[in-house]
Amino acid sequence: MRELLLCPPDHYGIEYEINPWMSRARGADTPLVKAQWKGLFDALSKLDTKVHLIPGKERLPDMVFTANAGLTVGRRFIPSNFRHQERAGEAPLFAKWMEEHGYEIVWLPENLYFEGEGDALFGGDALFCGYKFRTDINSHRAVADLLGCLVISVELVDPRFYHIDTCFCPLPDGGAMWFPAAFDEYGQRAIRDRLQNLIDVPEEEAAGFCCNAVVLDRDIVLPDGAKTVIRQLSDRGYTCHPLPMSEFLKAGGACKCLTMHMPQRERAC
Ligand code: ARG
């Protein structure tokens, strides 16, 4: 059974601005936050998964975005080194929790920014890693050495899509859905060279974070509002579970950001 890590939104809020979606003037509606997060929890729980919960902490409002806890491969957990001080306090909490749950914690050198699964997604036989806004490209080399796997580094060029999981979602049939314009030309080529059957997402749907999806075999849990993408995914035999995510979009996150796989893969390659 697949295992996932979520963090209840008890301390969630828009308390600072570290990406273009966040505005302290546009706070989150607490009852809606709770209902939307519960909707995600319920949807994932029904899909033959074990959902673990880490408690949140006051003054760490983005801790709900567990994709940024780190990257888990087999029983090894590589914690994030957050770029922004605002989130740095989350790292020891996630590492402690993972250690208590039996994972081996492997820290990267602390001068290398790395934001976990938010910037590192396996697709086909490679680990696709985004860099620039949050994660440093130098951390990719460290992750590749550690895991002994092929890492494809791709530059992110649009600040709205500051983590790779906001604009790229590998699919189990070897393809991916993605918003090409979030990558530079070289990155686009690298992705096209390695993955066939890509689904190009139109800008309006990408801006609704449809790529920020949790893929569980043939089931895909994604933010609602992505009509054309859902049609294409359904044509390929996937079952889509669209969910309202408005309150998390205000922080620049949605379904995938709120979820970390434990592990994302059993083996790196
Ligand atoms: N407000 C959070 C931040 O800017 C959102 C994180 C979204 N996480 C993700 N994996 N894309 O860091």
Look at the structure and name the CATH superfamily: L-arginine/glycine Amidinotransferase, Chain A
Main β-sheet, in a few words?
Answer: 3 strands, mixed
**CATH class category:** Alpha Beta
Distance linking N and C termini: 20 Å
> Architecture, according to CATH?
5-stranded Propeller
What spatial form do the alpha-carbon principal axes imply? globular
Helix and strand content put the structural class at alpha/beta
Q: Numbering strands along the chain, what is their spatial order in the largest sheet?
A: 2-1-15
Number of strands: 15
Strand content: 15-25%
Number of domains: 1
Task: Give the fraction of residues assigned to helices.
Answer: 25-40%
Bound molecules: arginine
pLDDT averaged over residues = 97
3D architecture notes:
By secondary structure, this protein is α/β, with parallel strands linked by helices. The protein has a single domain (2-261), classed as L-arginine/glycine Amidinotransferase, Chain A, CATH 3.75.10.10. The chain contains 8 helices and 15 strands. The protein starts with a strand and ends in an 8-residue tail after the last strand.
Strand and helix layout:
Elements: E1 2-6, H1 30-45, E2 49-53, E3 70-73, E4 76-79, H2 85-88, H3 90-100, E5 104-105, E6 120-123, E7 126-131, H4 137-147, E8 151-155, E9 168-170, E10 176-178, H5 185-194, E11 198-200, H6 203-207, E12 214-216, E13 219-223, H7 227-235, E14 239-243, H8 246-249, E15 260-261
Parallel strand pairs: 1-2, 4-5, 7-8, 10-11, 13-14
Antiparallel strand pairs: 1-15, 3-4, 6-7, 9-10, 12-13
This protein binds arginine.
